Amino acid sequence: MEHIRIGYIEGDGIGSEITSAMKAVVAAAVKASYGQKKQIEFVELLAGQKALAQTGSSLPDETIAYIQEHKVAIKGPLATAVGQGQRSLNVELRQRLDLYTCLRPVEYYDGVPSPLKRPELIDMVVFRENTEDIYAGIEWDADTDEAKTVISFLTDRMGVDKIRFPHSSSIGVKPVSKEGSERLIRSAIDWALKNQRRSVTLVHKGNIMKYTEGGFRRWGYELAQREFGAQRRDDGSIAIPRSGMEDLLINDCICDAFLQNILIKSDAYDVIATLNLNGDYISDALAAGVGGIGIAPGANINWESGHAIFEATHGTAPDIAGKDMANPLSLILSSAMMLSYLGLDEAERRIRQAVRQTIAEGSVTADFYHAMAKEGRSATLLGTRSYADRLIALL
Ligand code: NAI
């Protein structure tokens, strides 16, 4: 028997409930798919409040070292205090392991309650740059010596006269590099070609931030031409020729227009490559269209080193923690992505099929149950654990 060791971070709040559901579903899917040939062995890695209580550090070095060595891990949500000194552990993990792609597939499972008239038109995969942009965490609070130093450098040395209130401004720095943009866009195009997708759209705000977001757009088109042979076609569009199938279209869209378009013409987009902050907003807006963050899976990946952390995309949901009410689907569908990443495609397929079946038969957790009731649909209300048990029965 092949033992596949996977490190997992339980997470704070609802983390322990959804993680335990996910582990049981993964074990059942692997058993159903491969019998005695393969077995997943989960190894707990500490992070967040549990780590702080047990080790005095919320992100112990052992956790990073384990993922560095074993490459693949899965995590529940970790709490971050707003507006205080503590940096987000999620951001810290992504940066320390250089997980430069935040991968968020967004697809509709038939029957999931949605605020859209035609949610089934949404089928997108978002590649969000994960290590740069305003998320680099380079900022200083108003009135600190650091903020004053940066502001006087800008005004005195760089001739900047556009800081409206220089004496009371906080200051942040938005680094966007050619290398960082290129590796993200390269992985999106590569993935689109391998998975026979229709188009890759570069989403940016280059009309306002000309060198950072505008640079992302320009470097993207240049890369598509230089490395993938993209060409301008007679109708003015740019595309990568493919034999035996339609060309892969490369286009771009300004982020605010994009956020409108995903509501009014949801099927116009396919693979999305975007910067960190845009990607954050876009991923959650798209997730809302197909049932909310409770069902949206995600992963943080470095395609060169192979390091990857699969994760629940929602937060710790303190309002429902410990109540057996959380929807475990975000983490369970992330675990399905992880299985596919490990080459266990049959286990992935089975999990997704079982999820489809539960929703079709109306076996759902409270979030979906109440939304379905509002739509006048009958459903069976299940807790986190009994929902996982239903999936396991179907597996
Ligand atoms: P949240 O996602 O925890 O909760 C927002 C709303 O969605 C709440 O009403 C919650 O009950 C509901 N919800 C979330 N996940 C759910 C699930 N699986 N099933 C059913 N309902 C669910 O966002 P919030 O309240 O802004 O953040 C709480 C904490 O989580 C903060 O400390 C934040 O920093 C952290 N967070 C962590 C993330 C991560 O680890 N990737 C992502 C987002 C937030």
What are the key terms here?
two-stranded antiparallel ribbon, 395 residues, alpha/beta, single chain, binds 1,4-dihydronicotinamide adenine dinucleotide
Care to describe what's here?
With 395 residues, the protein is of the alpha/beta class. Helices cover 42% and strands 18% of the residues. The chain contains 13 helices and 16 strands. The chain has helices spanning 15-34, 49-55, 61-70, 89-96, 145-157, 178-194, 213-228, 255-264, 276-289, 329-341, 345-361, 366-374, 384-394; strands at residues 2-9, 38-44, 72-75, 101-107, 123-129, 139-140, 171-172, 199-204, 231-232, 238-240, 248-254, 271-274, 297-301, 308-312, 363-364, 380-381. The strands form three sheets. A twelve-stranded mixed β-sheet has the order 2-1-3-14-13-4-5-12-8-11-10-9, sandwiched between helices. Strand 10 (238-240) and strand 11 form a beta hairpin. Helix 1 (15-34) packs across helix 10, helix 10 (329-341) packs antiparallel against helix 11 (345-361) and helix 11 packs across helix 13 (384-394). The chain binds 1,4-dihydronicotinamide adenine dinucleotide. Residues 14, 77-80, 90, 293-294, 311, 314-320, 326-327, 330, 367 line the site of 1,4-dihydronicotinamide adenine dinucleotide.
Using DSSP, what is the number of strands?
A: 16
What overall geometry do the principal axes of the alpha carbons give? globular
Major sheet summary line: 12 strands, mixed
Q: Give the distinct bound molecules.
A: 1,4-dihydronicotinamide adenine dinucleotide
Uncertain residue segments: none
Pattern of helices and strands: EHEHHEHEEEHEHEHEEEHEHEEHHEHEH
Structural class: alpha/beta
Q: Provide the helix percentage.
A: 40-55%
Question: How many helical stretches?
Answer: 13
C-alpha Rg (nearest Å): 22 Å
Q: How far apart lie the N and C ends? A: 21 Å
Which band does the percent of strand residues land in? 15-25%
Mean pLDDT: 94
Strand arrangement in the largest pleated sheet: 2-1-3-14-13-4-5-12-8-11-10-9
